[in-house]
Amino acid sequence: MTPAILEQLNAARAGAKPALVVRRLRDNAQSLWIDGLLVDGDALPAEVETTLLDALRSDRSTKLEAAGESWFVQVFNPPLRLVVVGAVHIAQALVPMAQVAGYAVTVVDPRRAFGSDVRFPGVSMSNDWPDEALAQLQPDARTAVVTLTHDPKIDDPALVAALRSEAFYVAALGSKRTHGQRVERLRAAGFVDVEIGRVHGPAGLPLGAVSPAEIAISVLAEMTSVLRRAA
């Protein structure tokens, strides 16, 4: 990797921007793509460019043959993040599962009795109100936001902030009736149906989950499906 590309790549990683380094294996000619734009090196054949988005979505570096050449596409994605709003029993199951799946997890709950280090040892915690916490966390396209409290005073500010972000997955726990009421509140807050449709509610795949652990599995499964569906 050239010093110029390495410097720009490190800056991209510090800024949590997705990046790709593409090498032509015949002569090690290199191109750097950041946020979907070519920032260093020569333009690539169209057959190679079409693979770049798939590589980012799948988180997989790949070797391919195109335009009579061999190429290696190396992925440098920002880390996956999960913001869990509500330090409830389901969160206690979801957090370690998400960590095993590679997510950096932050639990947000202004109720200090719930959001404590005792209940979530070693987990990043915020006792700010969700809108304040999300303003600090700045969810991006590699971030999922899940609300679990059933309390509109806590969940709704988080959903509003998440819908105004690039978060790839936004979900809220609750029954279909509860979600219907949530939709009406979001409409009243000025969101249109296309925007509200980003909210997965009730959160999780319909697995028939009952226990907190099963519900956590269904949420993580749906999150994974949304993350990888275009891969």
Summarize the structure.
The protein has 231 residues and is of the alpha/beta class.
Description of the molecule:
- The chain has helices at 3-14, 46-58, 89-100, 130-137, 152-163, 176-188, 193-196, 212-228; strands spanning 19-24, 29-34, 37-40, 62-66, 69-76, 80-85, 103-108, 124-126, 143-147, 169-172, 199-200.
- The chain is 39% helix and 24% strand.
- By secondary structure, the protein is α/β, with parallel strands linked by helices.
- A 6-stranded parallel β-sheet has the order 8-7-6-9-10-11, sandwiched between helices. A 5-stranded antiparallel β-sheet has the order 3-2-1-5-4, with helices on both faces.
- The chain is elongated, with a radius of gyration of 20 Å.
What is this structure's SSE topology?
Layout: H1 3-14, E1 19-24, E2 29-34, E3 37-40, H2 46-58, E4 62-66, E5 69-76, E6 80-85, H3 89-100, E7 103-108, E8 124-126, H4 130-137, E9 143-147, H5 152-163, E10 169-172, H6 176-188, H7 193-196, E11 199-200, H8 212-228
Helix pairs in contact: 3-8, 4-5
Which labels suit this protein?
231 residues; alpha/beta; five-stranded antiparallel sheet; elongated
Shape: elongated
Rg over C-alpha atoms, rounded to the nearest angstrom: 20 Å
Query: Average pLDDT value?
Result: 92
Largest sheet: 6 strands, parallel
| First and last CA, distance | 27 Å
Give the strand line-up of the largest sheet.
8-7-6-9-10-11
Query: What is the number of helices?
Result: 8
Structural class estimated from helices and strands: alpha/beta
